[in-house]
Amino acid sequence: MFSGLSAFPLTPMNERGLDEGAFVRLIERLVTASVDSIGVLGSTGNYAYLTKTERARVLKLAVEHAGNIPVIAGIAALRTRDVLTLAENAEAAGVSGVLMAPMSYQKLLPEEVFGLYETVTRALSLPLCVYDNPGTTQFVFSDELHARIAHLPHVASIKIPAVSGDPVEARLRIERLRAHIPAHITIGISGDGSAAHGLNAGCDAWYSVIGGVFPSTALEITRAAQAGNTQEALRLSQRLQPLWELFAEYGGSLRVIASAAELRGLVEQPCLPLPLNALSGEGRSRLKILIDELNLS
Amino acid sequence: MFSGLSAFPLTPMNERGLDEGAFVRLIERLVTASVDSIGVLGSTGNYAYLTKTERARVLKLAVEHAGNIPVIAGIAALRTRDVLTLAENAEAAGVSGVLMAPMSYQKLLPEEVFGLYETVTRALSLPLCVYDNPGTTQFVFSDELHARIAHLPHVASIKIPAVSGDPVEARLRIERLRAHIPAHITIGISGDGSAAHGLNAGCDAWYSVIGGVFPSTALEITRAAQAGNTQEALRLSQRLQPLWELFAEYGGSLRVIASAAELRGLVEQPCLPLPLNALSGEGRSRLKILIDELNLS
Question: Of the candidates A15, A48, A276, which has its C-beta nearest B112's C-beta?
């Protein structure tokens, strides 16, 4: 489950609530494309902006419509007590695995992060992916902390941030982390613009934002890298360079991918929770042209 | 209300819920000391870790026990829809003003922050303090954005992060901000170790963490600065240097002040929500000695 292309769909919503119809259509699109797993309620799924009731509803819909494809559920929250409830709810919904970032308001200390994973994995019966995302959590994992957490029961994967575009540096990064963790733990790359580099450097999985909306485009890169066609994977990724540049310009992938889903008519506009805004004006026009030129699908 | 010493008490809690008795005792302590205002559900009040129901309860207790001292309520949340509900709840509880940071999971863009303040102030009938806290929100205000927001209705104060320890630089910082905003907007300093510098440089208020647990100690510094005794304010602050160093060592003021309240018997242990931990071991021992040596009160 924690290998290959793990596609992270948006959770379309507006100020009145979830857009369940659009969410189900996104899930069905991923099933049709045959992604390797579906990661719901990740950062792209806007887990942090939803109530527990809304999150439980999203998981129910995802499991109902995902067919045989394993569903991974984000269970992070600011408080340990809430994470424990969300873990129970995820198990009750019938997901196959869970994903958790050390979400913070007060930046967490390493011992607090370890304590959080220790408490949660003790209560868990599903495999867990450690979500290392300093951009949203403000927490930077050391490899030593990754090692301690990776030895806890149920830990099965680590979702790491972008690696270097230099193949030697990227491979060294992955090898250094692998030397710290048990052999059964998979490593997945995130930061879409870094995915080909990460997969080529030996990552087992791509935890993918564009895969949630354009699964065929993301699968093409993934399958090339898995087949050892490193140059082809790089070429396919470099073709998308203007998209990676838009991500950087608009504070990350979320606003751009949400706008792309709107422009493609996959979700209604707006689909993000305020105060977050999708692209408008010139950025949106550029994206509209890009989607067609790059033939994203 | 947005001038002088604004004391920010902890909201003591554990995994079972709020410790209402301890919270009321903290409020009463601030009333006895005659602070100028009480800021509940700030970062120190752990607003981000509480449900809406718990937050409403905290406001009710604060207003009931604050006597004639104005209560300022933190109303921030990740979603605009939740901030609007929290603003309504704060007004219903009878607070005198509100405080809002641009809390984020996805780091916000300047237009999103402006949109948030515009929407919230439109719905508000109480004065609002803009809470500029890049340490927890990951958002850095420009003076131009401060200016746009300060011109919105109901905006009455700006809570700024630490200023330079160099008096000329600190004064330049305050004067630069003041040149951007209407004359009726007060400026308040936060970052306790920077309070004397900020007040001496012309800040109108100190939004104070130690003031929430040790109001007399914080009032002494505030009153010296307000009387123009800049050297005395600095001396009193420098005396607390070992405490400011502990703050830096433990990722900010919260864990240290919570531990101090526990050590003084003002709250039960633990008083922070997991995954947050108060100090243990050697750090706690050092703090215990410090509280006595510095005669904090």
Answer: A276
